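Continuing the series of single-chain predictions for the mutant panel. This is the parent chain; the variants come on the following pages.
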Amino acid sequence: QQPEEDPREFSRKARIPYHPLPSLRRDISPVHDCLSLLQIVALIRRVRPAILHTHTTKAGILGRIAGGITCTRTIHTPHGHLFYGYFGKGKEQLYVFLERLAARFCERIITISEDERRTYLRRGIGNKKKVVTIYNGIDIDRFPGDGKRVRRELEITQQIPLVGYVGRLEEVKGPHLFIDAAMKIGKVYPQVHYLIAGDGPLKDELRKKARGVPHLHILGYREDIADVMAALDILLIPSLNDGFNLAAVEAMASFKPIVATAVGGLPEVIGDGGILIQSGDIDQMAEQTTKLLNSPGLRKGIGMKGKRRAERLFDWGVCLQKTLDIYHEVAEVSG
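Parent structure:
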């Protein structure tokens, strides 16, 4: 749900040199893409890295081709399910073709779930040795946060049920479905409050839709996400497609049960830390949320299981070490 940080500010904080690529664009642009490729090749030849690690689709395709041109060992992380729900059919097929091509120029592709890994292999992108999974991680020690502070901000007591959505406000993540579910839940539980935390292209549209929903708080982007999660009773994830969903891990780390759609990598991320439903089924989402609202014991039990799962699988120290292991492995192969 975080907006993009200024890379200059990020590099300053992290004390990592920053080299801007002024020609790089998100969308396909033959002229800018050719210029960007030349700039990346020139940068690699000047910096001479032992390993090039590319991220996301566009930068990853150009970066891997540049790595191939310069004979640089390359690792790529796509960061999620890119082939369903993000592009039109024609653009999707083009990106699959380009991913197959770019996969030839890298030593490893790091997927963020086994479901994503299977998708890549099924689409003919890479092979079983090249495509590996490393889950996204969080700083487990930050969770749970101070939920009472957020509830004071919202002017609601600890006794009032609070159901939330945390994430990007875009079509594929289903925030509009969260509002639909809230309207149904409200008919059974009129005292329940709802919270949306995040930013994105649907922000204004969702604000208009939310006007007819009592007790719905739209917070926008929040940096205090540990506190926001601690304030919730239940997290809803109504995604139409989702490669991982970090908010699910943050909720589990906060002892919070989840109701989520069984799409993409969500089933393997959530496991026994939540209840899975069919994508797009508003009735089922409202029904399962109501079930949890009716049973504090069930909420607590699922929350405890989620916490243990988050600690076991998604601590960022574990994820970092697995990434470093791949760096060493690839570097050793290169000699």
